[in-house]
Amino acid sequence: MTAKLVFAYPGDLSTRTGGYGYDRRMIAGLETLGWDVELLALGDGFPHPASAVKQNAERLLSALPDGALVMIDGLAFGILDGWAARESARLRIVALVHHPLALETGLDADLQAVLQESEHKALSLARHIVVTSPETGREVESRFAIPPDDITVALPGTDPAPVSACDGDPPHIVSVGSLIPRKAHDVLVDALKLIEDLPWRATIAGSRDMDAPTARALERQIAALGLHDRILLAGDCDDTRALLASADIFALASRYEGYGMVFAEALSQGVPVIACRAGAIPDVVPPDAGILVPVDDSAGFAEALEKMITDKAFHAEMAAAARRAGERLPGWDDTARTISESLEAIA
């Protein structure tokens, strides 16, 4: 008999972010394993939806039959604590947590506290929690007092893709991530200004629509620093793997990542990484395949870029280590099997 799962998600499932990409591949993988996955759209604006959107999401979830197995993306579930208190005895609720909501960059202290409290209450009512990295698992355990046996770590998979030759002249620095504060593209741009005397070109690929003020501020920053002819803001990229295949260095200064799928993709294509010691990034990027600096340290980021650009032997060693690290990464079939096993335990 085919097992039934309802997957409830906020926003647009086709959105080009790592989190939504994970959701799509998880759904496909579970269906391949024989699960009947019903999709339930909860509406836009999470984790700060309009009141009517939240009420409608709760109505849709409450319409599920007794005993239904429902997995809810944490971007929505973290603020559905009141609904979970009413329905957790009737439904088998599984939370999918990409990273705790209160860790998003740019939140004021009051909003962080509200999100921390609501997510704590919601997660305490879930039958099980799936997280996308050991770091997120540790955060969920420590922040929300969730027993480790109630948490499953299901690492994102990484598809095979062309390996970069890493022989660009000038070196091509690639960054992939939505233009939002957490991705800290402003730190990368400041770092590039500090090494403008070196040969390089840079491409920053990512949606401008998720935070239009941040996108406009980045455009102004690039223009003010006189780097508009060396840094391309490419917007959404149809094929990030092709872009990475053209890269010599992958550089993303994220202030936090629950996993950071694009770091794994860069490694799998033999591209050495420059990033920050933040969230799960040190779990993904081994020390021989990348340089990690403190968060918001544009000078340190610039030094790492300079080392990678000017020391060809060092760059070649890092690229070889990146390829080796990429070969050890799991595939999406591994991700789906891990999640399937956790669901079967409560199905």
UniProtKB/TrEMBL annotation:
The keyword Zinc does not apply. Its EC number is 2.4.1.57. It comes from Martelella mediterranea DSM 17316. One of its GO terms (molecular function) is glycosyltransferase activity. The keyword Endoplasmic reticulum does not apply. Residues 69-160 form the Glycosyltransferase subfamily 4-like N-terminal domain. InterPro entries: Glyco_trans_4-like_N. The lineage of its organism: Bacteria, Pseudomonadati, Pseudomonadota, Alphaproteobacteria, Hyphomicrobiales. Belongs to the glycosyltransferase group 1 family. Glycosyltransferase 4 subfamily. Keywords: Glycosyltransferase, Transferase. Pfam families: Glyco_trans_1_4 (PF13692), Glyco_transf_4 (PF13439). This is GDP-mannose-dependent alpha-(1-6)-phosphatidylinositol monomannoside mannosyltransferase.
